[in-house]
Write a structure and sequence with these properties.
about 600 residues; Pdz3 Domain; 21 helices; binds adenosine-5'-triphosphate; extended; single chain; five-stranded parallel β-sheet; SH3 type barrels; about 40% helix; alpha+beta
Length: about 600
């Protein structure tokens, strides 16, 4: 018997959804005309075709196709020419007729333009003589015409550039040159024809009015630390790739203009050429993240909240937090997290205003805060740091209300205090973090941090990220390191023999990691990054512990030795007026 026909592909996602919406809607619609209206709208053939195209494109997008060749149009015309001499079989005739159709030619030309990325404008090089001039006082503005192949959007980049030129050219600016032609001693009526006859790109050399003002008023420069990676090559919406600045999380940028709502202009501090380019504005990045967020909402997964609501015992191994929660508590945490996400109470990290800090030899060392999901290895890294250089690093001594054990020493293992004293200290906000465990209080006080810092040591503090706010001041100048778990495959490999302490009552408190512990660790890390990522100065992935430790140590030493460290401006700002300066909206979310 002939083989059965191959199964039909399943109906396309959105189209199938639309059909099922209609079949389920009838019973919920009171009015016949409403139903008909909805039916005609959702069953509209054009709408379905659009969705089909959309889905097909989406599928291709995932495959990230690369063009096989960039000159399809000339290949087709060469082929048509060859075929002329190949005799006139029906198939050949059909192919030649197809090649000569204007739509087909148009399609191939668009294909080639896309394959050659011919639609992106290229910026002309900066004129040589600018390099010799004072760059602060001369500005080069290029209006670049697009080569975009689609007629409908032809000139869009040009328009964008005119639009951006609103932020680049100002009243009072002095025009020095147009396309290399000096405008000195020329009257305005002589300049206009020069502009009118320019073909293609126009380059202005300008002395900005503001630079004169700035010099006289000594206006403060604005610096930000980027809290996300930006690669213009991955950004399809960027108006002109040549005019952008790429950056990595943690880079310090000087903001040159924030006049455009979508694209700010900034330059890298580390870049010696100091040339400004476009970067996504805070608003643009927030909007993008908001658009991506719904994806996360549909993830069917187990989720833990940012920081457990149950206070945990500071000063004890944080491993007690792993596996502590009952399944009911997990459920509650999950729904809390969802509602926080749905209601959009989180603002994604974008930029944070920073100022330079030059540490004086008399200044205390900055506090180092290590954070990370329970079990990731924060204690392990802290332990290694202490052993590596006990004179340089120190840790706090926690307070507790439990009885002192025989082998313990007051002020070395714990500060043993009464319940009354402990509660009084809670009321007086003396604790960075505290909790109750098996009926006893444990806590880490601000004073204990002061004590370590007063010894001239770098105090290593290990707290939940929600507690960073208690030390997020110019007094402590915390340097926050987030210890992140690697991918689950690497966790399985590296933690095969690792043990941690769990307080699950019915199991052995010291046990090896389970698959669930790894999943919890990764999810908690993701939640922590989403909620507190803007506070992290450095992210260290703890896969191989020796490598992670080396990276951490090198990073701390580099920061300590750096001539200039960049700290959040809000630590130093004291007057509310100063805080309300133009950039105040950036500090709102801290
Ligand atoms: N990269 C690593 N590779 C293998 N084992 C590791 C690694 N990092 C940490 N460990 C081990 O994992 C266990 C848990 O680490 P650690 O106690 O430092 O975690 P933690 O983040 O402080 O967690 P908790 O807050 O629950 O105490 C320890 O046995 C530690 O030695």
């Amino acid at each position: 018997p002939p083989p059965p026909p191959p199964p039909l592909p399943p109906p396309l996602g959105v189209c199938r959804l639309l059909s099922s919406v209609m079949s389920g809607t009838e019973s919920h619609t009171d009015r016949e005309e409403d139903y008909r209206f909805l039916h005609s709208m959702l069953m509209e053939k054009k709408l379905h075709l659009l969705f089909k195209i959309h889905e097909r494109l989406k599928r291709f997008e995932k495959r990230s196709p690369i063009p096989v060749q960039e000159h399809a149009a000339s290949l087709a015309s060469d082929l048509a020419e060859e075929l002329m001499y190949q005799g006139w079989r029906d198939e050949v005739k059909e192919l030649v007729a197809l090649f000569s159709k204007p739509h087909f030619k148009g399609l191939l030309s668009v294909h080639d333009a896309v394959a050659q990325r011919d639609f992106e404008p290229t910026l002309p090089p900066v004129p040589d003589d600018v390099l010799e001039e004072d760059e602060d006082s001369v500005k080069i503005v290029s209006l670049v015409k697009t080569k975009e192949p689609l007629r409908r959007t032809c000139g869009s980049v040009f328009r964008v550039y005119f639009q951006h030129s609103e932020g680049l050219i100002h009243e009072g600016d002095e025009l020095k040159e147009v396309n290399g032609i000096s405008l000195e001693h020329r009257k305005p009526k002589e300049i206009l024809p020069l502009l009118a006859c320019s073909q293609g790109d126009i380059t202005f050399k300008i002395i900005p009015a503001s630079s004169k003002e700035e010099m006289s008023s000594n206006k403060k420069k604005l610096f930000v630390r980027a809290l996300f990676d930006y690669d213009p090559n991955e950004d399809p919406t960027v108006p002109c790739k040549d005019a952008t600045v790429s950056f990595k999380r943690g880079d310090v940028l000087q903001i040159v203009s924030m006049e455009d709502d979508t694209w700010w202009q900034a330059c890298h501090l580390a870049d010696s050429s100091n040339r400004a380019g476009l970067i996504p504005s805070q608003q643009l990045h927030e909007r993008r993240v908001a658009l991506q967020r719904p994806k996360a909402l549909f993830k069917p997964q187990r989720v833990k909240p940012p920081g457990l609501s149950i206070p945990f015992p500071a000063g004890l191994r944080r491993s007690f937090r792993l596996g502590r929660k009952s399944s009911r508590a997990r459920e509650a945490a999950r729904s809390r997290r969802w509602s926080a996400g749905v209601h959009g109470s989180l603002r994604p990290p974008t930029y944070i205003e920073v100022i330079p800090y030059r540490r004086d030899s008399k200044d205390r060392q900055r506090l180092v805060v290590l954070v990370g999901p329970s079990g990731v290895g924060v204690n392990e890294l802290k332990r290694r740091l202490l052993i590596s250089d006990p004179d340089r690093y120190g840790v706090t001594v926690p307070h507790t209300t439990r009885e002192k054990r025989r082998q313990e020493n007051e002020g070395m293992d714990y500060h043993f205090v009464s319940i009354h004293m402990f509660e009084e200290d809670i009321l007086n906000h003396r604790f960075i973090e505290y909790g109750r465990f098996r009926g006893h209080y444990y806590g880490t006080s601000l004073d204990s941090v002061h004590r370590v810092m007063a010894e001239g040591k770098v105090c290593i503090l290990d707290v939940h990220p929600s507690k960073i706010k208690h030390v997020y001041t110019s007094e402590f100048k915390p340097y926050v390191v987030f210890v992140k778990p690697p991918r689950i495959e690497e966790l399985r490999l590296t933690r095969r023999r690792a043990k941690f302490i769990s307080d699950e009552e019915d199991t052995n408190p010291v046990r090896i990691f389970s698959e669930e512990d790894f999943e919890d660790m990764i999810e908690l890390a993701e939640t922590m990054e989403n909620h507190y990522g803007h506070l992290f100065d450095k992210v260290i992935v703890n896969g191989d512990v020796a490598l992670a430790f080396r990276e951490l140590k090198a990073e701390l030493e580099k920061t300590e030795e750096a001539e200039v460290q960049w700290i959040p401006a809000e630590w130093i700002r004291t007057s509310p007026t100063a805080a309300r300066r133009s950039f105040s909206h950036l500090t709102g979310w801290i």
